[in-house]
Amino acid sequence: xxxxxxxxxxxxxxxxxxxxxxxxxxxxxxxxxxxxxxxxxxxxxxxxxxxxxxxxxxxxxxxxxxxxxxxxxxxxxxxxxxxxxxxxxxxxxxxxxxxxxxxxxxxxxxxxxxxxxxxxxxxxxxxxxxxxxxxxxxxxxxxxxxxxxxxxxxxxxxxxxxxxxxxxxxxxxxxxxxxxxxxxxxxxxxxxxxxxxxxxxxxxxxxxxxxxxxxxxxxxxxxxxxxxxxxxxxxx
Length: 236
Known about the structure:
Number of domains: 2
CATH topology of the largest domain: Spore Coat Polysaccharide Biosynthesis Protein SpsA, Chain A
Number of helices: 6
CATH class of the largest domain: Alpha Beta
Number of strands: 11
Helix content: 25-40%
Strand order of the largest sheet: 5-4-1-6-10-7-11
Largest sheet: 7 strands, mixed
């Protein structure tokens, strides 16, 4: 509970990754990604209730060994490559609602972003309360090499700038704006508002900028980077 708000933590873990086999139970150090998220949740005193959503009995059994007590076996229609996370959230909340569980805030914690620390949660909750937000989530700044004004595209075998402004950009010092991407460490969502609008991002969504290097794991390189950071950054 935080500021009299009851907190539900949801860990989504779908099987069937095309880039890494059984990605959610890949190892980071001696523990799996799923195990790391579960242990993080169980140690966090602000969280009132935690639950896993998965389409995999293997994942569910793995999670139970890690200490999770509550889980939902996800429907097939919510487990495909094109399934939307907001549908998974909505389904989870409806199931809990039928069991008369009531919460105010949802924390969505993805196993594939395992390098979270307690301050990520606390800062996100503080921002959420301060602005009476619909949602808050952590973001990282896009490296200048991948700035939209430096992106190129190929069309009919010819190369061109993605943005018109890019034509005039010669070095990174000329880049005047910053861009960010969702890094997956934490999403904080107002449950009552979500059940009405079924959105992650609204006009009342705020960011918490992560100022350290992290890895949102989608492929083997990301996993290698995460293992390096996990071993040498001394924050985890």
